[in-house]
Amino acid sequence: MAGLDRDGTFVDTVLKGWNGGHVLNLAGVSLRLALYTSALSANFSQVNPVYNVAPLNVGEVVGPGYDPGGKPLTQVIAESGTAPGTIKFTASPLAWPSASFIARGYLIYISSMANKAFQVRCFGVDLPVQDGTFTLNFHVNGIWSVPLVGPVVAL
């Protein structure tokens, strides 16, 4: 990937969760969200992806109102998705007051599991804030949504 241009989930993190390498219990882990510029270049097939370790050590937002490491996600819940046959997880909105920076997307990582990287989301455009509040409201479909039921197969 050449810069932050897509959403993605780190395959290694999900596989290890499914195969017992670690537990992805949303109620039992601490998740953080770090903002990034277009300089982030994530490899979603990377083994053991970790926040602030190459290549995830390049492109984190710098500027007034933003602290390295981002903010903790609060009120994280997993529930049925808005579309039939889906599950999602979501969290409370985040805000960075008195901020001046430009963000292109974010990285969610599991701080209680040695900063294991979970997911990157791209806003699609650079979002600037100048001496104001940068607020991140999550989509009604959640931060992450997975379809569990496929389409009807024609026989």
From TrEMBL:
This is Uncharacterized protein. It comes from the Bacteria.
